[in-house]
Amino acid sequence: MALSGKKTVLVVDDEEDLLALLRKNLKADGYTVLAASSGAEALRICKQHTGAIHLVIVDLVLPGKITGLELLQRLVSMRPEMKRLCISGYLDEGMFRQEVPDQDTAFLQKPFTPDELLRTMRTLLDAPRQA
Questions:
Q1: pLDDT band, residue 62 (cuts 50/70/90)
Q2: Domain range list for the chain
């Protein structure tokens, strides 16, 4: 499976170092990266970006008024075709599935390797759209 891609990815994480690392690694693998460090910034980017956003990666624990799950719901309502990946260092897969039973939303627990992230992204991006 080729892990690189030419898709646009919106990454939302309040950890500036991790956000910078994800941006650098994903760009190196051919992805166009839109990066936001807060829910409000992510919503603004999603509204203003005129092209497609193929995948959103959202940290479930975000500071401020908008939680990661609330942000995800708002982003998907704006762009329902967008694939979804949630990341967290605080929840595990079982806790996540209690909150988000939607099987179309993937979960990756921090810390993860760049290869784990790329494989998860490719699986999501290559999956057929659900009806």
A1: confident
A2: 8-125
* 88, 110 contact by CB (below 8 A): yes
CATH tag, 8-125: 3.40.50.2300
Region of residue 4 (left: phi > 0; alpha: psi -120 to 50; beta: else): beta
The model's pLDDT over 11-29, given as tens digits with 9 standing for 90+, comes to 999 999 999 999 999 999 9
| 5, 41, 45, 109 alpha-carbon torsion, rounded to 10° | 20
86, burial (CB in 10 Å: exposed 0-12, middle 13-18, buried 19+): buried
* Distance from C-alpha of 59 to C-alpha of 87, rounded to nearest angstrom: 5
pLDDT tens per residue across span 64-100: 888 888 999 999 999 999 999 999 887 656 666 566 6
Count of C-beta atoms within a 10 Å radius of residue 72:
24
Contacts of 17 (CB under 8 A, 6+ apart): none
Three-state SS across 2-53? CCCCCCEEEEECCCHHHHHHHHHHHHHCCCEEEEECCHHHHHHHHHHCCCCC
